[in-house]
Amino acid sequence: MECELTGRNVAITKNLRAMADEGLARIEKIVGRGASARIIFSSQRHLSTAEITVSARQHTVVGLAEAPDLTIALRTALEKAEKQAIRRRKTRVEKKRQAKPISAVLPAVPSEQKAPSAVRGNGKPAVPEKRKSTGVHIVAAPEAMALRPMTIEEAVKEAESLDRQVFIFRDLAGDVKVLHCAGDGLVRLTEVS
Question: Disulfide check for 140: which of 27, 102, 165, 185 has CB 3.0–4.6 Å away?
Answer without folding.
Answer: 102
